[in-house]
Design goal:
Number of strands: 22
Largest sheet: 7 strands, mixed
CATH architecture of the largest domain: Alpha-Beta Barrel
CATH topology of the largest domain: TIM Barrel
Radius of gyration: 20 Å
Strand order of the largest sheet: 3-2-1-4-20-21-22
Shape: globular
């Protein structure tokens, strides 16, 4: 089905309400009208969602792979494989995310993503909104499941080269590393959402990072500092951590992995209550084990990425802890609906409009509003994906059972 002129009829999930039994019109891949009644001037097809929901497409700003592929595999085939997997789970705009690795591996990853982005069609899966330059600038003690050998402190020649490619929209660096503030300033010049992650930073280090442009922290409570971890660094008196800084600073946003495995319902509720839907993003942080059977998988490049395990519910390193998720954004949405007090519009906002706002893309994507791209999902009453449209073009789900 093309995107010439279509009408959708169903329960529209808007940023602040659900508009029941409403009509949404698109033409040329753009939303042209939202009405209570069908426009008499519309003569094209009507897609009847009946008692189902029509949602904006999801936006994932932190994601490593899926369906057996990792973006760090560095090939267009791997990028398309992962993107198709995530589009099946409702992510219409995606930000492929680097891990730690060599400069050559990072270059191959970005080149492959740029090639797919330049040649994109809906058959390729999620549309690439840009790159999340995530690894390799992690704190040594907060590398997590990423390759320790690929970790390093910020290198100006390296990151200036990658910024110059024009693909990076999200840029992460641990705040306590030497050269971190110069990295943040360079990222600010390239209009990135600047984040701190895999960090053991103190309040004072976060304050300096904030003054250099940091406005976001990656996957809250995962691979980040705490009062107890900072006592190991600084002794006494105990120091405030990234958690306290983010929760008390209204300009800071963060993200949660709401897969039902990383964080308890109480922590998800606490994050929502403290930051609100306008400063809390849902991310998958998923790896290549998404939609794959339980078993061992490389995290990062299939050539030399460290091994992790998947039990079909979450990734983990045996004896060490969790290692990224193995489910899609639709699971994150269902978890937040079922385990927190957030309303349906608030949950959908955290998976769409809030990340779009944080990236400066809310004038184009992130909500069902006239003038925006027609990235649409049809969800059943259990919030499972039934149909997916990107820029008004339908992505064929091929009758697949969407796992998780």
């Amino acid at each position: 089905m093309d995107s010439a002129a279509l009408c959708f009829h169903g329960n529209l999930i808007l940023p602040d309400t659900v508009l029941t039994e409403a009509f949404l019109f698109i033409e040329g891949g753009i939303i042209t009208a939202i009405e209570r009644q069908k426009l008499s001037s519309h003569t094209g097809p009507v897609i009847e969602a009946k008692n189902r929901y029509i949602s904006p497409g999801f936006i994932d700003i932190h994601v490593h792979g899926g369906s057996g592929a990792d973006y760090m595999d560095g090939t267009p085939d791997a990028v398309r494989t992962a993107n198709r997997a995530h589009l099946r789970h409702g992510t219409t705009t995606i930000f492929p995310t680097t891990t730690t690795g060599s400069r050559e591996q990072l270059q191959r990853m970005i080149d492959a993503c740029l090639q797919v982005q330049d040649q994109w069609s809906v058959a390729d899966g999620s549309r690439i909104g840009g790159i999340h330059f995530y690894g390799p600038y992690f704190a040594p003690e907060k590398v997590g499941c990423h390759s320790v050998e690929g970790r390093r402190d910020p290198n100006a020649d390296e990151y200036q080269h990658f910024f110059s490619l024009g693909a990076i929209r999200v840029a992460t660096c641990a705040a306590e590393l030497p050269g971190a503030q110069a990295f943040y300033q360079a990222a600010q010049e390239h209009k990135c959402l600047i984040t701190c992650g895999h960090s053991n930073a103190s309040w004072a280090e976060m304050k300096a990072a904030f003054e250099s442009g940091v406005r976001h922290v990656d996957h809250f409570w995962c691979a980040m500092s705490s009062v107890s971890s900072l006592r190991t660094r600084f002794g006494t008196p105990m120091q405030a951590s990234m958690e306290q800084f983010v929760l008390t600073n209204r300009e800071m946003s963060t993200e949660v992995i709401a897969d039902g495995q990383h964080l308890s319902p109480e922590l998800l509720e606490f994050a929502f209550q403290m930051k609100g839907a306008g400063r809390l993003c849902l991310v998958t942080d998923s790896n290549r084990a998404l939609d794959m059977p339980p078993g061992p998988y490389h995290f990062g490049s299939e050539d030399d990425g460290p091994w992790i395990e998947s039990n079909g519910k979450v990734g983990f390193v045996p004896g060490h802890g969790l290692a990224s998720s193995v489910v899609g954004m639709d699971t994150m949405v269902r978890t937040m609906v079922n385990q927190t007090s957030a309303s349906l519009p608030e949950v959908i906002r955290m998976a769409s409009l809030t990340p779009a706002e944080r990236l400066g893309l809310a004038d184009q994507i992130g909500s069902l509003e006239v003038g925006k791209q027609a990235d649409l999902l049809i969800l059943n009453q259990g919030f499972h994906i039934e149909r997916v449209f990107v820029e008004g073009q339908e992505f064929k789900l091929l009758g697949e059972n969407i796992k998780n």
